[in-house]
Amino acid sequence: MSTRYAKAWLAVLSLAAVSLASGCGADPSSAVGASTVASSPAAAPLQTPAGAPADGTSAHVLARSTPVRLEIPAIGVDTPVMRLGLDSDGTVQVPPIEANAPAGWYQGSPTPGQLGPSVILAHVTVGQFGNGVFLHLARLRSGDRVTVRLQDGASAAFTVYKVQTVRKAEFPTSEVYGNVDRPELRLITCGGPRDSSGHGYLDNVLVFASLDPGQ
C-alpha cells in the first residue's frame, strides 16, 4: 500500500464509528453494523491473515485500478461494481436499495490486487425488490474463486480461504480492515435472523480471499 493510501486508510479507521456491513433491508439505516474503533490496525506492522494460504505473499501486487465488475461463479454472481465513500456520520456508504443494485467497492480501501484488504459490500436482500447480489454469499467455501475486473483492463483473481458469520455487535474490525502482508479481498453482507424491526439483520457474513500467486 502506498504511503498516501496508507494514511487515508488510517484516517478512516480512526473515525469514532465505522460502518462494517452493507445495509440489507428496506431501511438501510436499520441494517448497518457499526463498531467503535479505539485504535487503528493500519498503524500496526503488516500481518499474515489467520488461515490465509502460505504462498499468498508471492502474488504479484497489481497497480491501483478501480474495480468495475465482480464475478463469483460458485454462487452465480456477475455484477457491476460501484464506488462507495463515507456518509456524513463517518459510516461507509452502502449500495442503493433498488432493483438490481450492484456491489460496491469502498474507495477508502486498496483496489483489488493492491497490498492490503480491498473491501466490497453488497446486499443480501433489497427490501421490496427481493434478493440482493450477495444472497448466497454464506454458501461460499474455501477454494472458491472470485474475479474482480478492473478499469485498466486487468483482472484480479482471488481464492476464498475463510467464510464466517458474526454478530454485528462483535464485528472483527482488525481482522477485516487490518494491514496485511499481501493483496486480500473482503466481501461483506448481512445475514442471520432478522432484527426486531423486520427490515435489518443481526449478523454479518464475511468472506476472506487471497490474491492468487502468479497474478
Automatic annotation (TrEMBL):
Molecular function GO terms recorded: hydrolase activity
Signal sequence, start to end: 1-26
Regions crossing the membrane: none
A Pfam family matched in the record: Sortase
Keyword Signal: yes
Alphabetical UniProt keywords: Hydrolase, Signal
CDD domains listed in its UniProt record: Sortase_F
InterPro entries according to UniProt: Sortase, Sortase_dom-sf, Sortase_F
PROSITE patterns: PROKAR_LIPOPROTEIN
Protein name per UniProt: Class F sortase
Organism lineage: Bacteria, Bacillati, Actinomycetota, Actinomycetes, Kitasatosporales
